[in-house]
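Troubleshooting entry. The earlier prediction with 3'-deoxy-3'-aminothymidine monophosphate gave an output that would not parse, so I re-checked the input for stray whitespace and re-submitted. Clean input:
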Amino acid sequence: GGASTPKRGAFILLEGVDRCGKTTQVSLLVKHLLSLSIATVALRFPDRTTQVGGLINEYLQSSVQTDDRAIHLLFSANRWEAAPNLVNTLTSGTNIICDRYAYSGVAFTSAKRAEDRSSMSGGELSLDWCMSPDVGLPAPDAVIFLDLDQDQAESRGGYGGERYEKKELQIRVRQRFAELQAIDEKQGRVPWHVVDAAQSIEEVKEQIAKIVTDTIDRVQSESAPLRRMWG
Ligand code: NYM
């Protein structure tokens, strides 16, 4: 490409346990960036609007037992089906703010235990097994982890009625996220930024906005290539 090749957009991911305020923060952030005329779109996973997403939605809202591996692969397929569009969006110069991704996929499945499921497998599914279907997906340029402990999450009005919204499971999910953070830090590729989600919405918003503008600047000034997950 010549001098006029547009810079790619940054891929910024917000992760965290249920009720940490991710969804609120994604929408505040997108509004903020758009108000600065920075081209940005929001994405979220699971994307319940596709056929695969419809199956995931049914699973999350019912108590029907389905094999954990099969469901895990559907969550991953739901990301893979979105990946070409995700890459095109970034290549066209638009930034992406994403609400959950492969880290949620691994954290939730690997946190399940026999009491949360009724599948062929006896023990927990390993981190390695859970990561493998997502290897090769476009990797985020930064992970912003909204950290909240389970007492604080509960004090926000309790969990909803969907599958997984139980305290014991959420405690293990938070531990799995920490393991995934350690793996990324060891690989030295995808930087994590942990934000204390117990602060006010305004404080969290300001901290996130700073991380996001720094990340966009870094991606553009370094012409950073888009990486792939866990490769
Ligand atoms: N979840 C989300 C998974 O179990 N695996 C995944 O790959 C993803 C992306 O779905 N409790 C879980 C986490 C949530 C649930 O997400 C629905 P949301 O953000 O509440 O729509």
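This one parsed fine. The domain at 11-221 is CATH 3.40.50.300 (Rossmann fold).
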